[in-house]
Amino acid sequence: MKPSINTTLPITHCCPACGLLCDDLVLNSTSPVSIKNACVKSVSFFEKAFAESTSKPSVAGKPTELSNAIQAAANILSKASHPLFAGLGTEVQGMRSIMRLAEKTSATLDHMHSEGTVRNTLAMQNSGWQTTTLTEIKNRADVILAIGTDIVSSYPRFFEKLVLNTDTLFNKPKPEVIYLGLAEETIKLPEIMNALNALMNAKNPLNKKPDNDMIGGVRIASLKLILEKLKAAKYGVVVWSASALKFPQAELTVQSITQLISKLNETNRVAGLPLNSGDGDSSVNNTSTWLSGYPTRNRFVNGHPEYDAYHFSTKRQIANCDALLWVSTFNACLPPDCEAPTIVIGHPDMQFEKQPDVFIPVGIPGVDHIGTMFRMDSSVAMPLKKLRETELPSLSDVICQIEAKLS
Amino acid sequence: MITLLKNGRIYDPTSGKDGVVQDIYIKNGRIIAKPSATEKITQTYDLTGKVVMAGAIDMHSHIGGGKVNIARMMLPEYQETKKYTEPEAHVCTPSCSHNATPSATDTGFRYIEMGYTAAFEPALMPVNARQTHLEMADTPMIDKGGYAMLGNDDYFLRMLTAKKDQKAINDYVAWILNATQSIGIKVVNPGGINAFKFNQRRLDLDENNSHYQVTPREILKSLSTAVHQLGIAKPLHVHCNNLGAAGNFQTTLDTMSASDGAPMHLTHIQFHSYGTEGDKKFSSAAAQISEALNKNKHITADVGQILFGQTVTASGDNMMQQLNAKHANPKKSVIMDIECDAGCGVVPFRYKDQNYVNALQWAIGLEIFLSVEDPWRIFLTTDHPNGAPFTSYPHLIRLLMDKTFRNEAFAKLNLDAQAMSNLTSLDREYSLYDIAIMTRAGAANLIGLNDRGHLGVGAGADITIYTDQADREAMFAKPDYVFKDGELVVKDGKVVKVVWGATHTAKPAFDIAVEKDLKDYFDKYHTMQLDSFKINDDEISSDGRGSIIVHENKKASH
C-alpha cells in the first residue's frame, strides 16, 4: 500500500513533532521531504510518515484483515477485568474514543511521557503556579531562566521563534537567556532551588554567607545574580522541563521553582513555562481532565473515574494488568514488555522484536487524517490537516469498531 | 408524530401566561398549534396540576475552556461525590451539591436533571476558543454558546491607541464573533488584565493602562458601541473593574454610564456591590446598586450569588485573582498571562457563614435580587462555580421564593454581618412567574434566542415540568419531565435519553479587508497563523453530534 498525496503541494501545515506545534511549515515535496521552516524534528517526523510502509494488521504476528484484528482485540478486552491503556500517543479526537473505551472496559490510563507531566501536575495540585504562554514570551520576555534544560533539544525552533524574533509588540530588547543546572552530574537542582528561595528572604542566614561559597555546585554569587536579573526584568520567564528532572521527588523541585516565581510576583512580573514531552501528552491530559474530571494517571471502575498519580503508572500497572492496549500514532514507540495479552495500535512504521498479540497500524494524525492538538502551553489547541489519501483507518475508527464488538 | 402535554399549568412570560391551564402540542422538535382532528396524537402526558415552563437557560456559567479545566486539574479532591448527611454549612441543605468542577459529561447531566436546557460560557478566550468548543461539544443534553472576551487583547488596545474609527472596531468585533463561533462579546476588568502584564496591580474606570494610555471607560464605550451597532442581540457582557474590592460599588455605578446609553450587561454584580462602611470597612452597597439598576433601563445584570461551602473561582481577571490568591482555600492558585489575548486566575474558595465578609456577600446578593424591581433585567446566577456550583440553583430559588426560609438562614449568619444587612426588611417573595422570567424568558430575550425560553407556537420544544411543591428547592431540584427539542430526556429527575445540544452563535457580516491587517499582526507578533485561529463550522458539527445555530442580528442601528 502506498498512500498518495491528495493535496496540491506546497501546503502550509501544522507540525505535531514537538509541543510548539509550528503551523508555518510549508511542505514542498514528500520524497525527498522538503519543508520550509523545518527543524530536525519535523523533517524526521515527515520522513518517517512518508516512508513507504507495508505494515498490515496482524494477529499473533500473522498478517490478517483489519476486521479480524479488531475482533481479536475486542476478544482480549472482553476477557480483561482491569486492562491498562498506555502509550496514548494520540490527539484530542483519538483520546476521546480511548476514554469511551476505557469507561466501558474499566481500564487504567497512562501516557508514555507522564513521568514529567505528573511532576508538574503534583506541584500544581499542591500549591498552584503562575505561568505564561508562547506569544507572551515572544513579545514581552526580557529575561529567560532555563532550569535543567537547554530547551532546543525538545523544541528546536524555540529560540528562532520566541527569542531571536525582531518584531515585538513593545519594542523590547532581545531577552537575556540564563541556563541553570544543565550539567546534571555536578549540579544539584533541589539544593539550588531551595537556596534561590532562601536568598529571596533578606533575613535568611544564607544571605550572609561568603559569595564564593558553593550550593549544589553553584556559587552563591551566581545565584544572587540570577535573582537580581529576574527582579530587574520587566517580564521574566522561568522555563523548566519536568521530564529532565530525573531524581526522586522531583515534583518538590518543580514546586520550589513555582514558589520562587510566586514570590517574585509580589513586586514584579515573572511567569513560568513548563515544557512538555510530546506524543500528544498535553492533548491527552487535557482531554482526560474534561471528560473524566481527572488528569492522567486515572482509571475507570464500573464507569466511575478514579485518580492516583502514583499507583496508576504504567510501571506499576504493567505487572498487574490483564491486558495491555498500547497506542502510539505519532511515532513508532514500542510497548514495554508485558506478560498480559498485548494489543498495539499505532504508527505504520512499527517494527517489533516480540510480536504483540494484535497489531493494528493506523493513520498518523496531521498526515493521514485531521485532528486537534494542544500546544505545550495548553492554552492553544491547533487543528491538524490531512495530507494524503490512505487505506489506514484512524485510531478513533479502530477504537469505535473495537467498542462495537465488545461482548 | 405528535406529542400532547395535556392540562399543565403554563408559566410563559413571553406570552404573559401566568399559570394558565393549557395543552401543548409538539411535532418535529417544535411546539405547534393544536392540530386538526384528523392528525394522530402519538403520545399524551397528563400534566394535570403540574407546573410547565420552558427549559431554563443559564446565561452565565463557566462550563468549559482553559480555566475550567485548570480548576479540574488543580482540584482532584473536588471530584469525589459526597453525600452530605451534615450539610456543608448550616445555611445550605444536604441537597446542595458542592462539586464545583464537574466533568463535561456531568455538567450536561446535572443541568438537564434540573430542567436547564441551555448554558452559556461567558468567558471564551478567543485564542482558547477551540478548547472551549471541544469541551462544550462533549457536554451532553444541553445547548450552549460562548461570549468572546475582548478589551484586554493587544490587537484591540492598539486600535484604540491608534484612534481607529468605530467602523474598524466593529469589523474586528464582528470578525472575532465569526472566528470564535460566539454569540456575544464580554469584557473582563476592561484593560486591567492587560495592565497587569505591565505590572499594574489595580485599574480604575478612568485610569490609564500605562502602556496604551487608554482607560477602561474608553474600552467600554468602544465595545458597547460596536456590539450595539452590529445589531448583536446580547448586550456587551461586562465584568467591571475592581472585582471583589471593598468600595468597588462606585466603580460599578460609574460603569453604568460608560456606554452613553448603549445596552450593557453587568455580570455577577454581587461581587461589585461592596461599600467601605462599618468597623470592618466592608459593607453592602446593594441599595445603591439596585436603585441605579432600577433607574438605568439600558443596564441588565446577573447576580452571581454566593452560597456557603467549598467552591473554586475561575476568572479571566488575573489582576484581581492575583490579589485574591491570599484568601485561597485550599491554599493554591493558578494565575496565567495568555497569548497577548487575555489571562486567567483560578483560586479555590470556601465561603463560610460565620465569616463576616462571606456572610455579607451572601446577604448582598439576595438584597440585590429583592430590590431590583424588573425581573426582566436581573438574572439568576451563581457565576458557576465562582459563587457556588450551578447545582445550588434550586436552593437559591427557594431563598428567593420563601421569606421564612430566607430569614431563618439569615439568622444563622455571622452576627456582625447580620447587623450590616437590611435583608429581613425585604419582604418580597418571587413568584413562579418571576422565576420563569429570570431563568427563561428574560435570559432568552437577553441573548437573542428567539425560539427558546418560551412556549409559543414555533418555539423549540425545550420544556420542563415540575410538581408544584411548597418546598421550592425540592421542586426545582427534580422536575418530573424534561423535553429537549421535543424528546423526553429526563423522567423523575433522571436522564432517560442522551442527546447532544446545539451551539448558538451570531455571525454578523464584516468587511473581509479586516483580515489584511490581522494577518500582518499574526505573522509578526503571534505564534500561530491567522487561519489556525479561526474555528471552522466543521470542527463543531462534523462529528455528527454537534450543530451550529446562527442567530440573526437584530436590526443594526447606526
UniProtKB/TrEMBL annotation, chain A:
Organism name: Methylotenera versatilis (strain 301)
SUPFAM superfamilies to which the protein is assigned, alphabetical: DHS-like NAD/FAD-binding domain (SSF52467)
Name this polypeptide is given: Formylmethanofuran dehydrogenase
InterPro entries hit by this protein: DHS-like_NAD/FAD-binding_dom
UniProtKB/TrEMBL annotation, chain B:
Annotated source species: Methylotenera versatilis (strain 301)
Entry-linked InterPro entries: Amidohydro_3, Formylmethanofuran_DH_asu, Metal-dep_hydrolase_composite, Metal_Hydrolase, Metallo-dep_Hydrolases_sf
Residues of the Amidohydrolase domain: 43-496
Record-linked Gene3D superfamilies: Urease, subunit C, domain 1
Pfam families: Amidohydro_3 (PF07969)
GO MF annotations in UniProt: hydrolase activity, acting on carbon-nitrogen (but not peptide) bonds
Protein known as: Formylmethanofuran dehydrogenase subunit A
Cross-referenced NCBIfam families: one_C_dehyd_A
